[in-house]
């Protein structure tokens, strides 16, 4: 039987963890700024459309 004590993705050849981390950080930045943009739009709608 195979040894399952070691996580496969940490030992696999060709993994580019730096690129993965940069992509994840870019995703987090997009979510943060998207959320801020929606809040600003809703605030402006609340001010000017009432």
Tell me what the structure shows.
It contains two helices and no strands. The protein starts with 7 loop residues before the first helix and ends with a helix. The chain has helices at 8-11, 17-48. It has a domain at 17-48. With 50 residues, it is mainly alpha-helical. The radius of gyration is 21 Å and the shape is rod-shaped. Helices cover 72% and strands 0% of the residues.
List the helices and strands and how they pair.
Blueprint: H1 8-11, H2 17-48
Q: Report the uncertain regions.
A: none
Work out the number of β strands. 0
**Structural class by secondary-structure content:** mainly alpha
Helix fraction bin: over 70%
Q: Per DSSP, what share of the residues sits in E-state strands of 2 or more residues?
A: under 5%
What distance separates the N and C termini?
68 Å
Q: What is the gyration radius calculated from CA atoms? A: 21 Å
Shape: rod-shaped
Give the SSE order as H and E letters. Answer: HH
Mean pLDDT: 86
What labels describe this entry?
single chain, 50 residues, mainly alpha, rod-shaped
């Amino acid at each position: 039987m195979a040894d399952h004590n070691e996580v496969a993705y940490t030992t696999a050849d060709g993994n580019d963890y730096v690129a993965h981390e940069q992509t994840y950080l870019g995703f987090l930045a997009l979510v943060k700024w998207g959320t801020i943009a929606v809040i600003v739009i809703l605030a402006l709608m609340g001010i000017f459309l009432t």
